[in-house]
Specification:
With 176 residues, the protein is mostly beta strands. 2% of the residues lie in helices and 45% in strands. It has 2 domains: 90 residues, Elongation Factor Tu (Ef-tu), domain 3; 70 residues, SH3 type barrels (Roll). The strands form 2 sheets. It has a 6-stranded antiparallel barrel with strand order 1-2-5-4-3-6.
């Protein structure tokens, strides 16, 4: 196992269970375009804090955001695949497609200042949480965590050079 730097990779998804008896694993993918990743030959697997580079024998999409994958060089059995359940799958940042000006990947804005159009800087982005209704930006405001839906009405854009996420907070959000 190797140590790979977190800031040079993005999380493609996580392994949720063993699928069948031949060592195939089912993974949920955290991407809007899973088809972009069906031809990958190598992927980084992170279990706890250890990183492992694995060659991919096959990957097949199932459903909108799931895939079945089989690693090369691993004994092909359900028992040998079981330790990978719960692990996360990572690829180098170079695999990500470029974004238009002002758009951002969630992992890019962690630690950014959150700047409201009326109030100025109101906190720092802690994380972005995927949610069925709307994804949520979690930010620290004073000693409290606040949640801002990721919708065009509230999120105006990101300035990557200044490390600022520009927003228009809904009235009363900071008063809760």
């Amino acid at each position: 196992m190797l140590n790979a730097p977190d800031d040079e990779y993005f999380c493609l998804g996580s392994i949720v269970r063993v699928h069948g008896l031949d060592g195939t694993l089912k993974a949920t993918l955290e991407t809007d375009e899973p088809g972009r990743y069906t031809q990958i030959k190598n992927i980084w697997v992170r279990r706890d804090k250890a990183w492992e580079s694995k060659d991919v024998a096959r990957i097949r999409l199932v459903g909108e955001r799931a895939a079945l994958l089989l690693f090369k060089g691993t004994p092909h059995s359900a028992e040998s695949a079981q330790p990978y359940v719960g692990a996360t799958l990572h690829l180098p940042l170079s695999f990500l497609p470029p974004l238009p000006q002002g758009a951002f990947y969630y992992h890019d804005v962690i630690g950014f200042e959150l700047c409201d159009a009326r109030l100025g800087v109101v906190g720092k982005v802690i994380k972005v949480v995927e949610n069925p209704a709307h994804d949520l930006i979690v930010f620290a405001h004073g000693y409290k965590e606040r949640f801002l839906p990721v919708v065009d009405e509230f999120v105006l854009g990101a300035d990557m050079n200044e490390r600022v996420l520009r927003v228009k907070l809904p009235e009363g959000l900071l008063d809760l």
